[in-house]
Amino acid sequence: MAYLVPTRSVPFGAISVHRVVAALYALPEAVDAWLKARETDKVLRQLTDRELDDIGLTRGMIEDAAHSMSAR
Questions:
Q1: What is the pLDDT of residue 46?
Q2: Is 57 helix (H, G, I), strand (E, B) or coil?
Q3: Residue 72: predicted pLDDT
Q4: Rounded to 10 degrees, what is the CA torsion of 58, 59, 61, 62?
Q5: Which end of the chain has fewer CB atoms surrounding its CB within 10 Å, N or C?
Q6: Tens digit of each residue's pLDDT, the chain (72 residues)
Q7: DSSP secondary structure string for all residues of 10-32
Q8: Beta carbons within 10 angstroms of residue 49's beta carbon
């Protein structure tokens, strides 16, 4: 038995317009995440190696940690 799903065609360019609008709506959130990651990176870089070790980080892990913390 065949199962058919009715489809509707969309106007030319509608998908592209939708993607642009979705990207514009996502932009403020992306900028906010970037700013948080930048601030976190700045604060972590001011810590001493001993303080970083206390929280389980090394200098080489700061950038990844800042981005993962800001994504939450």
A1: 96
A2: coil
A3: 66
A4: 120
A5: N
A6: 667 777 777 777 888 999 999 999 999 999 999 999 999 999 999 999 999 999 999 999 999 999 888 766
A7: --TTHHHHHHHHHHHHHHHHHHH
A8: 10
**What span, in angstroms and rounded, lies between the C-alpha atoms of 21 and 1?**
40
d(CA 63, CA 40): 9
Q: Both tokens of residue 48? A: 């001493």
- Determine the Cα angle at 43 with ends 24 and 55, to 5°: 110
For the whole model, what pTM was predicted?
A: 0.68
CA-CA distance, 48 to 18, in Å (whole number)? 47
Residue 44's SS3 state is helix
